[in-house]
Design goal:
- By secondary structure, the chain is α/β, with parallel strands linked by helices.
- It is built from 11 helices and 10 strands.
- It has one domain (6-66, 127-326): Phosphatidylinositol (PI) phosphodiesterase (TIM Barrel, Alpha-Beta Barrel), CATH 3.20.20.190.
- Strand 4 (143-148), helix 5 (158-174) and strand 5 (181-185) form a beta-alpha-beta unit.
- Helix 5 (158-174) packs across helix 6 (188-197).
Amino acid sequence: MIELDAAEAFRGAQNTVRIVGHRGARGVLPENSMIGFEFAINTGVKLLEFDVVMTADFVPVITHNHRLHAPTFRGLDGHFITEERRISELTWDELRQYEIGWIDGSTAYGQRFPDQAQVGDVHVPKLEDLLTLVSHTQHSDTFLMLEIKSDPQFVSAPRYRERLVAEVVKVVRRTDLSKRTVLHSFDWDLLKVCQAYAPDLPTSFLTYLNPPQTHCGEDSSRTVSPEFNGCEETIPQLVKDAGGKLWCPYFEDVSQDIIDQAKELGLIVAVWTVNEPADIKRMLGFGVDAIVTDYPGRVQRLIADYGYRIATQTRSKARLEASKQAS
């Protein structure tokens, strides 16, 4: 049997679109939390996207921003924080003191997710916590889209960036998940570091042309992402030339022509972050391989209504489908 890498788990097939749980299932449960990841897996969503940064004592942890996030972090006093300290300046023991199971509905960020449950005693997980869960036999068909967050503060610090990649890869290898993990970033230079340090792990290239105006309260990757002005129509070729197997564009930036171009190059296309029914249907019409979403159940429902199959496949089935496509 031909050995295929983790990227192939994100490739669609005829009448099949993959669903990727964005930060677990952010629309309904606390983002980047173990309870959110477990929920997604238990509802048949076998592809997980999440964000990784590193603490002051070099522990890779799963959270989106480079600072504590005021709308979702509560201190020991039970109140939402007012000081957003840098995670790179906190030790793991300090970070674990904060709770992340509630969302502040008075903030613009909180108002974006009115259906998110409030759950007590939820904390930022280590990368190892999620990977250990996924390494269990019953989750052998779960694959990971691991976004390494590139901190603008360290963009000119090669040793730090190499250490970040090294610590992430160390955990991936220690949990024996090299064949089920894709390394994913907006920072294409950081992906070069990933390719040099772990050439066996496929890389996924994130892009966006126009920063989403609705994504308030989240760190922007604009300063670490390539500038595409004047070459928007050649992005799929740029991804291919950079050694990418998976292209992950912002869904508002894609058209039928650009999706077709990417497919002709053999790229897997996973669009982010698609939540509204009309947008989900439009992406299904374009024939994307995968939809990254805060609402996995919503996409499942629309996929079924659209007449597509909801993919909850095993690794062996993924290999078989990909092998048939290749032949």
